[in-house]
Amino acid sequence: MDKLFQALASAPRREILDIVRDAPGCSVTHVCRYFDVSRIAVMKHLAVLEEARLLVSEKQGRTRRLYFNATPIQMIYERWTTEFSAMWAGRLTEFKRRVEGDKT
Amino acid sequence: MDKLFQALASAPRREILDIVRDAPGCSVTHVCRYFDVSRIAVMKHLAVLEEARLLVSEKQGRTRRLYFNATPIQMIYERWTTEFSAMWAGRLTEFKRRVEGDKT
DNA sequence: TCAATAGGTAACCTATTAGTTACCTATGAA
DNA sequence: TTCATAGGTAACTAATAGGTTACCTATTGA
C-alpha cells in the first residue's frame, strides 16, 4: 500500500501512467519523448511504477513493451470507498454522541 | 495532489488519521500514545498531514485539538473515480481497436 | 506562585529519492 | 557483418524525509 501511494505521489509518474494507458504496448523510448529528463530517470520512474504493480512490461526483441495495470487501482478504489464509508461512519457516530450530550 | 498522496504513503500517518477520526478533538499527546517514536517525530507526521489538509487543528489553552478533514479525501475520491472511468474507457477503446483489427 | 504538563523550535544525523554521466549488451536492418 | 538503436547497469551527487536530543514557551492546577 505504501509503495502504491508512493508511486502515485509524483506528477511525472502519474503522467507516465496516462501515457502508457493511452498507448498500450509502447516502448520506454516512447515514454521518454514526453519528458526532459534523462532516459535513466524515466526508467527509474518506470521501475517504481512496476514495483507498485501499476505497470507491467514484456520484452519483445530489443524493445520493452509497457502496459498499464488497473488492478492496484481497483484495490485502492475498493479499499478507499470502504475507508471513506468508515470515516463518515466515524463522523456520524461523533455527531450522534454530541447530539446525545455525551461528554468528551 | 502530490502532498496528498505523499501524506498517505506512510502507514503510521494513515494510522494517525484513523486515530484522530476516532477521537475528534484529541491532543498531540493522545496520538503519541499509539507510537514508539518521539513526540517530535509524531509532530512532523502531523505537520505533513496538515499540509495535505487531511488534518486541521485549533489551539485551545495549552493543548492543540486535532480534527480529521475528509475534504481532500472526497476530492481524491471524485477525481479518482473519474480517472478510473477514464482508464477503463482507455482500455475499452484499445479493446475495440483490436477487435476491429486496426494496426498498432 | 511555582512545578508539572502540553506543545514548539533548532540543530543534527542517516537513509532514501531523483537525478546525473559513463559505459555495457543485445537486436535488427542496410 | 557491422553499425545504429533500444535498453540495462554502475557509480556518483544533491535534496528530501524521518528520526533523534536539547532546549524553550506557555498554561494550569495544587
Summary?
The structure is a homodimer of 104-residue chains. Chain A is mainly α and 104 residues long. Chain A has helices at 2-8, 11-22, 28-32, 39-51, 71-99; strands spanning 55-60, 63-68.
Q: What is the approximate shape of chain A?
A: elongated
Write the CATH homologous superfamily of the largest domain in chain A.
Winged helix-like DNA-binding domain superfamily/Winged helix DNA-binding domain
CATH architecture of the largest domain in chain A: Orthogonal Bundle
Radius of gyration of chain A, CA atoms, in whole angstroms = 20 Å
How many distinct domains of chain A? 2
Q: Biggest chain pair contact, residues each?
A: A-B, 31 and 30 residues
Strand order of the largest sheet of chain A: 1-2
What fraction strand of chain A? 5-15%
Highest-level CATH class of the largest domain in chain A? Mainly Alpha
* Span between termini of chain A: 33 Å
CATH topology of the largest domain in chain A: Arc Repressor Mutant, subunit A
Quote the average pLDDT of chain A: 85
Number of helices of chain A: 5
Major beta sheet of chain A, specifics? 2 strands, antiparallel
Secondary-structure element series of chain A? HHHHEEH
